[in-house]
Specification:
Radius of gyration: 14 Å
Structural class: mainly alpha
Number of strands: 0
Shape: elongated
Number of helices: 2
Length: 67
């Protein structure tokens, strides 16, 4: 696992990062759906994995906003 870094963000900056990650994840999920529809299993797996890697970070950041 990569080393940890400490980063300070304003609440507005945190919301911008969350919005960007949500858009990125949705793009990957849409690409996965398209790949599945085109019977392209390799791309479907790749895009689904990318979205699944974003989800835990997105959840952690969303929890910070809600606190």
């Amino acid at each position: 696992m990569a080393g940890k870094i400490k980063l300070e963000l304003s609440s507005d900056e945190l919301e911008m990062v969350v919005d960007a990650l949500e858009a990125d994840m949705e793009g990957y999920l849409e690409s996965a759906r398209e790949a599945r529809g085109a019977n392209n299993r390799d791309d479907h797996v790749t895009f689904t994995e990318a979205a699944s890697r974003i989800q835990p970070l997105l959840s952690r950041l969303q929890d910070l906003i809600e606190d």
